[in-house]
Design goal:
This protein has 196 residues and is α/β, with parallel strands linked by helices. The protein is built from seven helices and eight strands. β3 (57-60), α4 and β4 form a beta-alpha-beta unit. The model has no long low-confidence stretch (mean pLDDT 77).
Length: 196
């Protein structure tokens, strides 16, 4: 079985769980122990309900933007293998720091590089996926030049949205003004349900 870990203040995840009639770990504690796969954010992996169980294998997604301290919490004595997946090119790691230290000092000590990027820079074997499928080539040109030295290839096929009036069917790009949307702060992140 698969378990998705979320705190009760993760309103969207809890609403989704209720819609699918899923129970929380506190309602079914045995389920967690029997689960073969546990999905959690790095911050949720520190919760006692998660950290009390041994992990043999770790798949760390978005490792290119995860700070080194956040990644290091996954290295435990029972871990036999870890795979890190991520892209360090577009964004540096997100981190908070002690204001008495200062951002310059934090950066001098490597806070601006993810553990993923540091390992790749030190020659740890890695595989680079250089084909993107998310956007047409004309949109990918700028990030390709800026972040990937033109090495990124595009394999994208335009599948038009049914009943959507594209301003230019040849260029599937459209900016939509969502005037009545409002942002809500949920779990230290912002959500705008109207935009979705």
């Amino acid at each position: 079985s698969v378990v998705r870990v979320a705190t009760h203040d993760s309103k969207i995840i809890c609403d989704e769980a209720r819609r699918h009639k899923l129970r929380t770990i506190t309602e079914r504690p045995g389920q967690f122990k029997r689960s073969k796969v546990i999905c959690a954010t790095l911050s949720h992996s520190r919760l006692p309900v998660v950290s009390q169980y041994p992990w043999e294998f770790v798949l760390l997604d978005e490792a290119g933007t995860a700070s080194e301290p956040d990644c290091l919490q996954c290295f435990r004595k029972e871990v036999m293998a870890m795979a890190m997946v991520g892209d360090p090119a577009p964004l540096p790691p997100a981190f908070t720091f002690d204001k008495t230290v200062g951002i310059e000092t934090a950066m001098d000590f490597g806070a601006g590089l993810s553990l993923f990027e540091q390992l790749v820079d030190r020659g740890i074997p890695s595989v680079t996926l250089n084909v993107q499928y998310r956007m047409p080539e004309f949109l990918a040109r700028y990030p390709n030049r800026l972040c990937y030295d033109g090495q990124l290839q595009t394999e994208w096929s335009h599948i038009p949205l049914p009943n959507f009036p594209w301003p230019n069917p040849v260029a599937p790009l459209c900016v939509i003004n969502v005037a009545d949307g409002t942002e809500e702060c949920v779990d230290n992140s912002f959500v705008n349900k109207q935009e979705v």
